[in-house]
Amino acid sequence: MKTDSKIQSDVMQELKWDPSLTHEHIGVSVQDGIVTLSGTIPSYIEKSAAERAAQRVAGVKAVVEKIEVKLPGVYVRDDQEIAKTIVNQFKWNVQVPEEQIKASVENGWVELMGEVEWDYQRTAAESCARGLTGVQGVINSITIKSKKIQPEVVKQKIEEALKREAEREARRISVEVRGSKVILSGQVHSFTEMNDAKWAAWSAPGVTSIENNLHVKN
Question: The pTM is what?
Fold first, then answer.
């Protein structure tokens, strides 16, 4: 079992190793396997990359992200310009149903609204906004259309998908379906396994929400 000091050292090395990060301004503290990231970085996409980097480190149970985005003056853009760029990004992304999604921008913060068929469409829309210069943060309020589904069919599809990923991990994950909501519980070895389980659940037709009760075993 890793000590907190070892986890801290590994997270700092992972941040340093990632070429997309300005790691010099990110602070790392660890308590009981829970990592807290703090400091300032020049873009929102780096903020997301820092959180993913910490999640990749073995022994990390959870990540608390307190990083602030402070844009250099040359990169500051007004809300209207950001909104116009987002609309253009939607038009060029085949995974985004642009007619179903609206974006509002206030002080660099983007909120996405609308209703789509699949989670990958909601995720693609957020990705379009996340990487833009001037964006301080993204609130994804896009919902998924509710469908009439058979819970036992959805549960079977999710469990089959998990087994395709890794038989061992699948046996430790419990899947419960309530209407169009999926509840995942159990233990996984890493955030990667956790994300794989969530992806499998979102890929099942008719799923509109996921309650993630999985936790990473150190």
Answer: 0.67
